[in-house]
Specification:
The structure is a single chain. It is built from twelve helices and 19 strands. By secondary structure, the chain is an alpha/beta fold. It folds into two domains: 222 residues, Metallo-beta-lactamase, Chain A (4-Layer Sandwich), CATH 3.60.15; 107 residues, Oxidized Rhodanese, domain 1 (3-Layer(aba) Sandwich), CATH 3.40.250. Strand 2 and strand 3 form a beta hairpin. Helix 3 packs across helix 5 and helix 7 crosses helix 11. 40% of the residues are buried.
Amino acid sequence: MIFEQIASGGCLSYLVGCADTRSAALIDPQLSLVDRYLGLAAREALRIRYVLDTHTHADHFSATRELARQLGVPVVMHRESPAPFVDMRMGDGEMLAVGKLRMQVLHTPGHTRDSMCLRIDDRLFTGDTLLIGGTGRTDLPTGDPEALYQSLFDKVLKLDPNLFVFPAHDYKGHQQSTLRDEIAQNPRLKVRGRAEFVELMNSLNLGMPTHITEALRTNMSGGKTVAQLLAEAAAKVPFMSLDELRARSERRDEDLIVLDVREREAFESGHVPGARLLPRGQLELRVNKELPDPTRRIVVYCEIGQISTLAAATLREMGYQRAVAIDGGMKAWVAAGYPVEAGSAAPR
């Protein structure tokens, strides 16, 4: 077996390959690490055949859909997964052939309804069902402490105690454990029965993961993250520096329209001299009236440079091929000490 554990910010993903056939599977990949996975596979001369998520993640963005698109391979999850883009839905006890390796699915609901563990030879990839020194939480959507108790005590902990445990998360620098060690040392497995375990899980009072709404939205639907939208927009538009905008503003470039896409209150508190106001939320509805000449050069800015990038990309899609975004925003303009106008003197 060829095996790589990839750690990032407490999240763990795994590249597992067959040494004979060079076929591989990628377990719980993160969207921010796509290039790293591809580089690892290339280094080991592996062909990724499957991308898998052990469950619907709420704390990071899954890379399964993006990798499946790039590599032309199926996304694999348990059949309870709500994600519409899953290509291969597997049930408890079924196996996936990765070259000469066999990956067996164990349905282990509790952390989420679609949680599963994956057993390959002497290794058990436990997702968020069993962590090193802990377990997955049960207070997120489709979590169920009673189901997690059953998954752990009636299924996972009855497996070979010599199995190595590789979870989807660890925040203390651990790389692996064994079932034997978890049975002996994991405090959440020391309960005296189902009721005590349920009470324990219900009293954890944990904080919500960062970006939980966005992570669940994208991982459940296959929609795009804000970072993806910004990256795609940035790839479609040129940028202008603050220095260049200042120079052109000072010499009153007649061909240039400076467009502020913030809300009116922000605009009136201070804007680039001569800028026009057209809030991003009204752009598509008012663009024909406010910008009747699609051949004009339009420089778009916002507060920090993100909304303006999206707005410039939208303008280009609508036919304003000379639209560009400012590399920065009003905040950077003010920090640079450049001139600012206040009030609503500029046209609506």
